[in-house]
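We modelled the chain as a single entity of 374 amino acids. Its sequence is:
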Amino acid sequence: MNANYKKALVHDWYYINGGAEKVIHSFTNIWDDFDHYALVDFLNKKDRDDILNGERVNTSFIQKLPTAKSNHRKFLQLFPYAVEQFDLSEYDLILSSSASVSKGVITNQNQLHVCYCHSPMRYAWDLYHQYLSESNFGYVKKMYAKKVLHNIRIWDVINTNRVDVFIANSNYIKGRIKKIYNRDAKVIYPPVDVKKFTLEKSKEDYYFTASRMVPYKKIELIVSAFNNMPDKKLVVAGTGPELKKIKSIANQNIELLGFVQDEDLKKYMSKAKAFVFAAEEDFGIVPVEAQACGTPVIAYNKGGAKETVIDLKTGLLFNQQTESSIIGAVDKFESLEIDHEIVRQNSIKFSKERFEKEIEEFVITEFQKFKSNK
């Protein structure tokens, strides 16, 4: 792509270094001349260096609102207006990284807008009723939240016309884009830094899971299932709002580590006989990282796990988010013969290098087609 073409990279927000930010890091590896935009940017120096190579971000007025740093999501009703205030008229290519509102930036007919969609915003669509039921809002606040999310859904569908090309992070999300937006999407799996992990064939006698402890991750469900398998050890890494509750129900065969550093996380993951994953994720990077260690994955048979775990070969898939389904899967897993080298090999197809090659080729091709039609 001609260096004279101006490029903007629009992300929803910057405040943690998570899976979506790994995608941003790869985008900046491919093209180092983006101007960056996001609703808010509260990254520390280390994360800014890791994700953005130290670059600064153009932010919206939400950045300066009181308490935005501690909880920017409380300003959800302002997100559509805020993202539309970015003036991107000078750019030839706009690349948005969106699980919320960044795809709603305003563009014109002389610009190509490619959206890498992690998911249509889940709290407004498929997690709408769950979000409201778990919010503990009073009647008035719940009615207000319903009105805000109703308006967000209308805006979310309307602004899909501002995207020229959608890229989905999995076939699962491709299906959701088609259902909600009636748009087709190219699937390019997100980057997993599999080179950070090494094959470990010598496994120890424990199961492992790691996650932020929030309801949809289903860590409480995994712990409850292992409560009913006292002869099997479960090690759990992670922290979050549900940690105290999970601690209160965990039996003696369950070890709760809380927050662990990356190196310790890798050690636990590589030595585990299997990684247990009960969430319905859009893609799910951690199960791929487990496989990069040669560790098989016992996962819920929905969402991204269906595409990253080969049933009975690199792990085992169970069909319901219930204790009995997890217990049955663990029992069945113990009778399987798993080749740890095949498990590791399966992770390579989701590598960071593969992602960057596919994204670069796809975006350049689409940009050339776009320019040739002008």
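As a brief sanity check on the tokenised model: The mean pLDDT is 94. Residues 352-372 form the longest helix (21 residues).
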